[in-house]
Design goal:
mainly alpha; 96% helix
Length: 78
């Protein structure tokens, strides 16, 4: 092989290695993003469960107050 062919092979090999490194970094980044999204979904699910439980408590509280006000209105009408 002449010098030009060797230089060309060396250049393409270096470009290929850079491309492989970039693809590996991109794959690693993708896995990290996926793990972060899964973690956020888990946190969101727990938060939503707490929110639903708190809403149940709030609904019970307001239902109780509604009954109390209804009783008070009936007493004032009499």
């Amino acid at each position: 092989m002449n010098k030009l062919e060797k230089e060309l092979q060396s250049y393409t090999r270096a470009k290929h290695q850079k491309h492989d490194a970039l693809m590996k970094a991109f794959d690693t980044w993708g896995k990290e993003v996926e793990a972060t999204l899964n973690h956020l979904e888990k946190i969101n699910g727990k938060f939503f469960q707490q929110f639903e439980a708190n809403m149940g408590d709030a609904e019970a509280f307001f239902a109780k107050k509604e009954k109390q006000f209804a009783r008070m209105r009936r007493q004032f009408r009499e």
